Amino acid sequence: MFIDLSEVTQRLRRMSSEELDVSGSYQSFLLDLICEGKDTLVVDQVSVWLFDDISNPKKLINVANTQWDNDLNAEDYPVLLCEEYPNYFKAISTGVSINATDAHSDPRTAEFRDTYLISNNITTMLDATIFKNGIPHGVVCCEGRGPLREWQSAEIAYAEMVADCCSRRLLVSELWTLQQQMTKLAFHDALTGLKNRRYLMDSGHREIRRHIRAGEQLSVVMLDIDHFKRINDSYGHEIGDVVLKAFAQCCQGTLRAEDCLCRLGGEEFIVLLPNTPTEGAREVAERLRISVEKNIIETAHHHIQVTVSCGVAQVNLAKPFSYSLKQVDHAIYDAKAQGRNCVVCC
Ligand SMILES: Nc1nc2c(ncn2[C@@H]2O[C@H](COP(=O)(O)OP(=O)(O)OP(=O)(O)O)[C@@H](O)[C@H]2O)c(=O)[nH]1
Fold this sequence. Notes:
The protein has helices at 5-17, 26-41, 86-93, 113-117, 153-187, 197-214, 228-235, 237-254, 278-294, 321-337; strands spanning 45-51, 59-65, 79-81, 98-100, 124-132, 135-144, 219-225, 260-265, 268-273, 297-298, 303-304, 308-314, 343-345. By secondary structure, it is of the alpha+beta class. It folds into two domains: 5-184, GAF domain (Beta-Lactamase); 197-345, Reverse transcriptase/Diguanylate cyclase domain (Alpha-Beta Plaits). Helix 1 (5-17) runs parallel beside helix 5 (153-187). Guanosine-5'-triphosphate binds next to strand 7, helix 7 and helix 8.
């Protein structure tokens, strides 16, 4: 078989330069890629397999396959075990492509004879290594049914290019996941999982602009747990953390989905209430106050009850968001002065 390497290379290069929907699964890209590979090499099946652990591989996991009609769930991916196919694993780990003309007799692939090759009429195989940071990470496996194939150097080079495209796509996918995690870390509070102060400030400015455009009212409620220092002092900091998490859950369960509960820091929280005038916000604050008071927090050795002081303000849309935060902060100060476990409106 003759491959015009310059033509197929160009197709692959164009394909891998296309703008990717990185938020989607990498499998659909891999599938397009290996379908292209299957047609170009004129083989019967192409699949992508990845090691479970790049530094100490025990399994190869089949993540894409030209034979599959639909994407499988990750838990249904076929798996090859290193202990059952040691020679194949060793061959992939060298990073050199496996050009098995006769897959039944080639020492690198003969292990599959009785378990796979005979039952699937596979006669010939060409496997190219997928690398990650220069280390073998998996393999693109091309299988043929008909006559034995003496794999040509252009065919091997092409299969390796397909494997390199897989490497790049997997890397992009990993970077995207990392970026998602970083964004999550940047805008979330690690203890409670709620949005944090940075998110609140961004969101506050955005919401002000949106509410001006819509001619709607926006309110904020500040929540400050009463005598929280005593919880830490009486039960320890770890139980203090449990209380903060339980408090956050209790409040979240009391709010509408569109209300945004954030942890400002320590035992201070803010709720941003879209499309809500002061009176509505006061009712929400009162509901939160009662829910918190009723919520008995169970730990291994204690039943803990906390109360919360609440400040309420309608956001002044003509002023920076920080102005309204200062206002609710004053309201909290008054609530504490009035004996705590109460709601004060600006
Ligand atoms: N466990 C735990 N404690 C925290 C955390 N962040 C802040 N704190 C503690 O929260 C306590 C807040 O105490 P104060 O600011 O004196 O307020 P308070 O005891 O709640 O008293 P009032 O607000 O006046 O009712 C301090 O002891 C902080 O150390 C945290 O992430 N975990």
